[in-house]
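hey
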């Protein structure tokens, strides 16, 4: 029996930006999607607010179309006779509601140049706000890492099979990165736009958290954001404190917050100073 593909995390905006569908040509199961950051998605894991459910089946048929919103956009989910448990769930659920979905990524191309992304659910369950917020946080970390990996691929100057071999030592998505780089004409500006998307998504979960939980959550987000900055700005010799502080201030982090975050990263063994005033991740 073949092993099922791991369900990948992706925000709605990047998922809906995708228009690259591949089959068995790069040693993957048929019908998977490659996103603009190079993530290979046969199955996806999404959590968000179910905002709308509609039965769009013809007479005597069942086909539910649902919309699930995350902080970056909306996923479209279809469930019919081949997804009976999901269809039953959607037939009785009251909106709005927090839901978690694991399903197959699908792309519909009705005509040349038109692409519609959707998810066919294998599992769908009610969850609470905490689970949604946790998904946003973890998907943010995953997306930031995917962005950094794509940026390394861009900096390498390699393409095609050479790039795939180069990236295979550090990521399971080397094949996806190699084809996404050319297909999507990936640029520095596009990766920066996705990075800003992540920061905006993180900001939304602070806004809805109870007051007593905001400080701890903010500290956790600052750790992720400052760590990402160090990785992004380090060109091999580390990052100067002044350069890091300037980048952090543009996102609203003051010097005291940066100092506190750097101390936490050092205490956790994730960051060190090879020289005074120079920061590097371990």
């Amino acid at each position: 029996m073949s092993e099922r593909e791991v369900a990948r995390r992706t925000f709605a905006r990047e998922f809906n930006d995708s228009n690259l569908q591949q089959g068995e040509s790069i040693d993957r199961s048929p019908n998977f999607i490659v996103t603009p950051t190079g993530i290979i998605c046969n199955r996806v894991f999404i959590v968000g607010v179910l905002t709308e459910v509609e039965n769009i089946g013809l007479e005597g048929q069942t086909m539910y179309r649902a919309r699930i919103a995350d902080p970056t956009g909306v996923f479209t989910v279809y469930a019919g006779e081949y997804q009976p448990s999901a269809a039953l769930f959607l037939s009785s659920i009251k909106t709005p509601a927090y839901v978690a979905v694991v399903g197959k990524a699908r792309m519909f191309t009705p005509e040349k140049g038109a692409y519609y992304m959707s998810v066919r659910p294998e599992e769908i369950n009610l969850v609470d706000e905490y689970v949604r917020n946790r998904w946003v946080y973890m998907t943010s970390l995953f997306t930031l890492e995917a962005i950094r990996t794509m940026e390394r691929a861009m900096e390498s100057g390699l393409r095609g099979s050479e790039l795939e071999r180069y990236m295979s030592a550090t990521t399971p998505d080397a094949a996806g990165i190699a084809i996404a780089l050319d297909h999507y004409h990936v640029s520095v500006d596009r990766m920066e736009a996705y990075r800003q998307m992540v920061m905006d998504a993180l900001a939304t979960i602070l806004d809805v958290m109870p007051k007593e939980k905001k400080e701890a959550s903010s500290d956790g987000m600052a750790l992720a954001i400052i760590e990402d900055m160090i990785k992004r700005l380090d060109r091999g010799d580390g990052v100067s404190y002044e350069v890091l502080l300037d980048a952090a201030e543009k996102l609203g982090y003051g010097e005291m917050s940066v100092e506190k975050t750097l101390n936490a990263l050092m205490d956790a063994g994730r960051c060190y100073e090879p020289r005074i005033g120079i920061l590097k991740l371990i």
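The chain has a mean pLDDT of 87. Residues 129-156 form the longest helix (28 residues).
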